[in-house]
Write a structure and sequence with these properties.
By secondary structure, the protein is α+β, with helices and mostly antiparallel strands. The protein folds into four domains: 2-48; 54-158, Immunoglobulins (Immunoglobulin-like, Sandwich), CATH 2.60.40; 163-183 and 228-431, Rossmann fold (3-Layer(aba) Sandwich), CATH 3.40.50; 192-225, no CATH class. The protein contains eleven helices and 22 strands. It has helices at residues 5-19, 27-48, 163-173, 210-216, 251-268, 292-302, 314-324, 340-350, 367-374, 380-405, 418-431; strands spanning 2-3, 54-59, 63-65, 70-78, 84-89, 96-97, 103-107, 112-121, 125-129, 132-137, 143-149, 153-158, 192-198, 220-225, 231-237, 245-246, 249-250, 272-278, 282-289, 329-334, 358-364, 409-413. A hairpin with a 5-residue loop joins strand 10 and strand 11 (143-149). The chain is elongated, with a radius of gyration of 33 Å. It starts with a strand and ends with a helix.
């Protein structure tokens, strides 16, 4: 039971009468009488509050998208024969942002009403809604009865497929995405022969079919299409270097979102896609396969993954991939180059993959550190900050140069551009027939 302000305001009168009983004739008797009347009113309020009057139904999508706002609907039904004033609050998962406000509503008997509120989650994984808590006010307005209705409901938050990444994906699937713009007409790219056609001004002379040209009396070019059935392995580092936050997401979130986009592009292009998840050891592995079932399996297994504080063992996962992948494979590893020791470990593990496979290291460049290096310091603190940022940035660039000098392809862009850059690198490799 919860006593309301009306009860306390009413209680003030008998208390004052009791305190002033020496000055007010029969003050104590009046105080006791009012106290008795107030007690009877409270008991009447207790009796008159309907029991099990409230029924609640929650409607929330079972599958949600990361950082996408969604609506939660609460259907409130007054099952009693009298009107009642309700205060209701829901209990969504603690990791969701946009906590629901207290809903205060007066419901006529046998009537229902729908109330909504908005939430979103920057975290992936499986979550559960809890109970709905409520209070019913007595007809005299002196007390409230409180209770809860257990409404356990599970939801899944999938990787982000909205915003810029979704737009890039749609353009790529339409065959018009390359380096953030529409492709110019560059026929003859690819490595699989498709057909013959009349030579055009922008065609490569190396693609002219001289025999066909001699027969037809005009220049004829061979047209190629990009090879299909090639192999792509996506490696996701979930170690300590992927746990720092950039904006609302962790580095791992950006990597997962980019890898999902990349997998969709590759499957649409007819390639086989596999994946591996690792930190101090291999956590998950799937052989390269085709089809929507592989994509569903990929997303489902990436959804609950979270960054850990463990040191990543690149040698273990790369050796496993080397043993399991006999055919030439494009190996795209999403990781970070946080310090010299981890970078050396990554380089030592990546070199044995070549020349049989084609490794590509994709990292998130820290735009905040870069911004500090470009800003002139104005006080002593900013001088120290500037020097520290320069050291980190120089180490990062030195590592990238070391990887590239050994023939390991690298992609290093700000977090918001990771999906676009990864897709572009994949398409560039496909079109230059490096696989």
């Amino acid at each position: 039971m919860v006593f309301l302000p009306r009860f306390y305001f009413t209680l003030v009168t008998p208390i004052l009468l009791a305190l002033g009983s020496t000055l007010v004739p029969n003050g104590m008797a009046a105080s006791l009488l009012l106290t008795l009347l107030l007690t009877c009113a409270v008991l009447a309020d207790v009796v008159l509050i309907p029991r099990d009057a409230l029924r609640v139904k929650r409607n929330v999508p079972p599958i949600l998208k990361q950082a996408q706002i969604f609506q939660v609907e609460l259907t409130l039904v007054n099952q009693s024969e009298t009107a009642a004033l309700f205060q209701i609050i829901d209990s969504p998962p603690v990791d969701f942002t946009g906590a629901p406000k207290m809903i205060t509503v007066r419901l006529p008997p046998k009537r229902e009403i729908v109330q909504t509120y908005s939430l979103k989650s920057y975290r992936r994984g499986s979550f559960s809604f809890g109970a709905v808590y409520y209070r019913i006010t007595g007809p005299l307005g002196l007390i409230q009865r409180q209770g809860k209705i257990d409404l356990p409901q599970g939801v899944q938050v999938l990787p982000d497929m909205t915003g810029e990444g979704s737009r890039d994906l749609q353009l790529a699937l339409a065959g018009a995405f390359q380096a953030g713009r529409r492709k110019t007409a560059r026929r003859g790219e690819g490595s699989e022969f498709e057909s013959l056609r009349e030579h055009q001004r922008d065609d490569d002379f190396r693609h002219i079919d001289w025999k066909a040209s001699a027969k037809r009396g005009k220049l004829i070019s061979r047209q190629y299409e990009t090879e299909r059935d090639q192999r792509l392995m996506i490696l996701l580092d979930t170690g300590r270097l992927m746990s720092p936050k950039i904006g609302s997401y962790r580095k791992l979130d950006y990597a997962i979102n980019a890898s999902v986009h990349l997998a969709q592009i590759a499957l649409h292009k007819g390639d086989l896609v596999g994946y591996a998840v690792f930190n101090d050891e291999l956590r998950a592995f799937a052989e390269p396969k085709k089809g929507q079932a592989q994509m569903s399996h990929f997303v489902r297994n990436l959804t609950p993954i979270q960054a850990t504080r463990l040191e990543s063992d690149y040698a273990a996962v790369f050796n496993h991939v080397l043993r399991r992948c006999s055919r030439r494979t494009l190996i795209v590893c999403f990781t970070d180059l946080g310090d010299a020791a981890s970078a050396e470990s990554l380089l030592a593990a990546a070199l044995p993959l070549m020349p049989r496979h084609l490794p590509v290291i994709v990292t998130v460049s820290n735009s905040e550190i870069l911004a500090v290096t470009r800003k002139a310091p104005e006080n002593e603190f900013e001088v120290y900050r500037h020097v520290a940022a320069m050291e980190i940035w120089n180490d990062y660039q030195r590592t990238l140069r070391g990887l590239r000098s050994r023939g390991v392809a690298t992609v290093s862009v700000p977090a918001q551009e990771l999906s676009t850059a990864a897709i572009n690198e994949y398409l560039r490799i496909k079109e230059t027939a490096r696989l």
